[in-house]
């Protein structure tokens, strides 16, 4: 039998190891490169910051802008109140999020039903997602938040909290439903076949085989949606609730200064930046796991 | 009488006629091997028997009972006929043991305690007792396929179908999976398998069927098919793969 070169080489006894250098040539080279790139990155970042710090204050309106947007005293005076108001944003988020998760899941499942008798459910799923993904959030908030209480409902039922939250729930569950549905479709067809071949019913296949895999996959995408939700809660201020954005507006009128908006922005960022970073981290980890 | 009988089974995907009148008998305790070029319809035939694909015409009889009748609930049939695919068999989010227990629990309504004994015994029988708590991605390809076989066996099927279960494996892992089939053969399990492992088919099959152009061009005991194929096409195929 002919023996290929590779086979012959593989058959040779392993060479006696060289006295291993503490680091290979390649590692040394890469370490040098890394130091070099780090140095360059630091230098160029420093240059840009210097440029901004020097240039911006040279702008003719800088003095005015600094007074009205970056007033330390106003900041210190309004920040606790803004934080207080932000608790309302968090509360609205906290009661909307679970409802959105459940409704989104339900609608995703509606769109997946196969039985002809349940076709209306499927149709409902399609119409629902089409409508609420197709409208600007603020429009839905106006229509539902002003429209429904306008029917002359009795006291607790005309609250903008209820109808504003409902508007957010409808819009966001449409997005969540689409994300979940893409996750369901992303589960390989052979998984359904394997489940069916074992005699599992369609419902059990969905519940035990498809959904757990689909939901795991869409965690990062859904996290991004919930981050967007936390920001969009501020839109409810347009129909009444005095949450952080509205509170910042109140301070602005009171003190004739825009610094409270900057404070509000910082508070939002304190929540959203770590959350987006975490979602990105999950996303890259997942992308790596799949390859 | 044959346990499983295929009569003039026809199946097309659009204009592509994949099965064009397949006749096949599988007797109790027999191991039937389907061989044939890629695309000759081996997988399709197995999927049709398991009712994962509806057939267009003909009939599939299980103990004389037509299981291919349109509109019939496939699930009772699938409880009696197990199948293992080439790859992507296991549910990646469940441990090996959970994979195996899911169908007995949900389909047969058995509870965890009742299953513990027999499932552990199955894992032991196939040399997997230390792998029960592992997730599929923590198992080698060979171990995954063995767990997939255990999962199908846990439903206590009367007939097992295997669709090229070794062809996605590294060569050094093929042996351990074939050993499982050998074991089942020894136990008298009725089996139909699509395979590229000609040596294995020659050693163990009761009958080898050569698929070509949607038909079984030639079938018979491995001695005959491998030693003295009647058809030129069979000869050409065997020349290529042996
Ligand atoms: N779901 C499907 N839709 C359309 N065509 C299909 C489908 N499944 C199989 N086919 C076609 O049917 C033919 C037979 O495929 P099949 O997978 O049964 O062949 P095979 O003998 O198992 O081949 P291999 O040895 O490569 O596994 C091929 O032409 C394939 O393209
Ligand atoms: Mg195949």
The CATH homologous superfamily of the largest domain in chain A is called: MetI-like
**How confident overall, as mean pLDDT of chain B?**
92
Pick out the low-confidence regions of chain A: 1-13
Biggest interface reads:
A-B, 18 and 25 residues
Number of helices of chain B: 9
CATH topology of chain B: Rossmann fold
Helix content of chain B: 25-40%
Mean pLDDT level of chain A: 89
| The CATH homologous superfamily of chain B | P-loop containing nucleotide triphosphate hydrolases
Name given to the CATH architecture of the largest domain in chain A: Orthogonal Bundle
Q: Output the radius of gyration of chain B.
A: 18 Å
Counting helices, strands and paired strands, the structural category of chain B is alpha/beta
Structural class by sheet pairing and helices of chain A:
mainly alpha
The residue fraction in helices of chain A comes out at over 70%
Cα shape of chain A: flat
Instruction: Detail the poorly predicted runs of chain B.
Output: none
What's the count of strands of chain B? 10
Shape of chain B: globular
Bound molecules: adenosine-5'-triphosphate, magnesium ion
Q: Quaternary state, please?
A: heterodimer
Briefly characterize the structure:
Chain A has 291 residues and is mainly alpha-helical.
């Amino acid at each position: 039998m002919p023996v290929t070169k590779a086979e012959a080489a593989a058959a040779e006894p392993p060479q006696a190891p060289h006295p291993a250098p503490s680091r290979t040539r390649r590692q040394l080279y890469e370490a040098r490169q890394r130091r070099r790139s780090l140095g360059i990155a630091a230098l160029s970042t420093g240059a840009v910051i210097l440029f901004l710090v020097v240039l911006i204050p040279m702008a003719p309106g800088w003095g005015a802008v600094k007074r009205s947007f970056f007033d330390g005293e106003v900041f210190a005076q309004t920040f606790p109140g803004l934080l207080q108001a932000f608790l309302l944003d968090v509360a609205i988020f906290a009661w909307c999020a679970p409802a959105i998760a459940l409704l989104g899941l339900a609608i995703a499942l509606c769109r997946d039903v196969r039985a002809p008798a349940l076709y209306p459910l499927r149709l409902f799923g399609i119409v629902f997602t089409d409508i609420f993904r197709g409208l600007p959030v603020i429009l839905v908030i106006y229509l539902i938040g002003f429209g429904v209480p306008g029917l002359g409902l009795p006291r607790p039922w005309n609250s903008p909290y209820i109808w504003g939250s409902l508007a957010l729930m409808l819009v966001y569950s449409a997005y969540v439903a689409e994300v979940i549905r893409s996750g369901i479709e992303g589960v390989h067809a052979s998984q359904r076949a394997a489940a069916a071949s074992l005699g599992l019913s369609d419902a059990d296949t969905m519940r035990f085989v498809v959904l757990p895999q689909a939901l795991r996959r869409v965690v990062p995408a859904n996290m991004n949606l919930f981050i967007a939700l936390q920001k969009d809660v501020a839109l409810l201020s347009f129909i009444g609730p005095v949450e952080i954005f509205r509170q910042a507006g109140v301070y602005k009128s009171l003190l004739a200064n825009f610094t409270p908006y900057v404070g509000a922005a910082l508070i939002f960022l304190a929540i959203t930046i770590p959350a987006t970073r975490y979602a990105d981290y999950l996303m890259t980890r997942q992308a790596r796991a799949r390859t | 009488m044959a346990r499983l009988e295929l009569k003039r089974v026809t199946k097309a995907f659009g204009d592509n006629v994949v099965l064009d009148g397949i006749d096949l008998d599988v007797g109790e305790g027999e191991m039937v091997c389907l061989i044939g070029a890629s695309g000759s319809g081996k997988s399709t035939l197995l999927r049709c028997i398991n009712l994962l694909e509806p057939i267009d015409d003909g009939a599939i009889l299980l103990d004389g009972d037509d299981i291919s009748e349109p509109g019939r609930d496939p699930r009772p049939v699938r409880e009696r006929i197990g199948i293992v695919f080439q790859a992507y068999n296991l549910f990646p989010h469940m441990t090996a043991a959970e994979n195996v227990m899911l169908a007995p629990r949900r389909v047969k309504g058995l509870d965890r305690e009742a299953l513990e004994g027999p499932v552990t015994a199955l894992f032991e029988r196939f040399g997997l007792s230390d792998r029960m708590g592992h997730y599929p991605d923590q198992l080698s390809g060979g171990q995954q396929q063995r767990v997939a076989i255990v999962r199908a066996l846990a439903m206590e099927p009367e007939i097992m179908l295997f669709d090229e279960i070794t062809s996605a494996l590294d060569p050094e892992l093929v042996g351990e999976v074939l050993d499982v089939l050998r074991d089942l053969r020894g136990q008298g399990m009725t089996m139909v398998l699509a395979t590229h492992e000609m040596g294995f088919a020659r050693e163990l099959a009761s009958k080898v069927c050569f698929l070509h152009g949607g038909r079984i061009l030639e079938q018979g005991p491995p001695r005959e098919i491998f030693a003295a194929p009647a058809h030129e096409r069979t000869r050409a195929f065997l020349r290529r793969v042996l």
